[in-house]
From TrEMBL:
Keywords: Methyltransferase, S-adenosyl-L-methionine, Transferase. Residues 17-86 form the O-methyltransferase dimerisation domain. This is Methyltransferase domain-containing protein. It comes from the Bacteria. Residues 134-324 form the O-methyltransferase C-terminal domain. It comes from Streptomyces broussonetiae.
Length: 345
């Protein structure tokens, strides 16, 4: 009989039990325990139960889960946040807190269809778990406005994380008019317009998103230079009159064939010398990581579209060349986001 090595069993435990870890984390967050202990460190189980409304034994079970996984620390009878959970006690619309409601309501059940999505080669998770009829996440979000809000809160916080880097490293001084395809909740558009006073930005997105982007832009006072248009990037030609095109967290959603077609569309819309900027999660050219590329690739295939993944910079640069764009640079934004830059020949 083969003897199972205890160390191997323990080493695999974080994978085997990952779903419990997420439940301790997201339930603790949803019940406001990390925010509560941020304000009032050292509360007892009984005091925590009074705030959450849970009965005594459910409270013990949740606190045991959180302390055993290192999310909370117990000192005497009192509970405290740890460096892991402390960042979750702050603003709910900022990362990492902003990730949790979306992961719980948008992803958690749907990603359980990962294997089936690979076998059927389509986004089974979305089709099984999110109400509605649209074939992609973005269409289905328009059918579920509460989820659409959660998604854009999460996405805005992701773009905010790299906002400092993008405004410092991406030199747009040569351009006057940027088309931001799939521009979402206007974070990149308003940051870039704020950084480059001679630049106008047009956000092109699906109708419900373009409408909320318009409201967000109005709150920033940049509406004379940041415009929004309804655009279906697949059905419509790109509006003329821009000398640069930004695809931020957009191309990786789609299949290689559709990425090529979108890049060709950008090239057609641009004058000679025009710029193309692809902001995307980074996958190294050896195709071994980093982890974020692996998570997001599974998410695009299982949920978002059933056809995309995080591509390498080399792949983008090859597609640039195929459609008449010259690759000019790769700019890292933080540890795992990159801008692949090109110019129309
Ligand atoms: C992952 S979000 C990225 C948002 C924004 N660019 C950012 O970086 O924060 C993808 C965006 O693409 C938009 N989108 C999806 N399908 C689209 C289409 N066919 N045409 C235009 N925009 C689309 C979605 O509505 C969403 O705002």
């Amino acid at each position: 009989m083969t003897h199972v090595d205890d160390n191997a069993h323990l080493a695999l435990r974080p994978f085997i039990k990952a779903h419990y870890h997420f439940q301790f984390l997201s339930t603790g967050f949803e019940l406001g325990i990390f925010a509560l202990l941020g304000r009032s460190p050292g509360l007892t189980a009984q005091e925590i139960a009074q705030h959450t409304g849970l009965n005594h034994q459910p409270t013990r079970i949740l606190l045991l889960g959180c302390t055993a996984t290192g999310l909370l620390r117990k000192e005497g009878d009192g509970y405290h946040n740890t460096p892991l959970s402390e960042p979750l006690s702050g603003a709910p619309d900022q990362a990492p807190a902003s990730y949790l409601p979306w992961e719980r309501q948008g992803i958690y059940r749907a990603i359980g269809w990962f294997g089936e999505a690979l076998k059927q080669d389509t986004n089974v998770g979305l089709l099984r778990e999110m109400p509605g009829t649209a074939p992609t996440l973005y269409g289905r979000l328009a059918e579920n406005p509460d989820l659409e809000d959660l998604f854009h809160t999460m996405m805005s916080s992701v773009s905010t994380l790299v906002a400092g880097d993008i405004t410092q490293k991406l030199d747009l001084s040569a351009y006057r008019s940027l088309l931001d395809v799939g521009g979402g909740a206007a974070i990149n558009a308003t940051n870039l317009a704020g950084r480059w006073p001679d630049l106008s930005v047009t956000i092109g997105d699906l109708p419900s998103v373009a409408e909320s982007a318009r409201k967000k832009v109005a709150e920033t006072g940049l509406e004379s230079r940041v415009h929004t248009v309804e655009l279906d990037a697949f059905q419509d030609e790109f509006p003329a009159g821009h000398d640069a095109v930004l695809f931020a967290h957009f191309l990786e959603i789609w299949s290689a064939d559709r990425v090529r077609a979108l890049l060709a569309k950008a090239a057609r819309a641009l004058p000679t010398g025009g710029g193309v900027f692809v902001v995307t999660p980074f996958q190294n050219d050896e195709e071994t990581g980093p982890l974020r590329a692996a998570y997001l690739s599974a998410y695009f295939h299982t949920i978002a579209s059933g056809e995309g993944m995080v591509y390498t910079c080399s792949e983008y640069e090859g597609w640039f060349r195929e459609v008449g764009l010259e690759p000019t640079d790769r700019l890292m934004l933080g540890p795992d986001t990159v801008v692949v830059c090109g110019r129309k020949l």
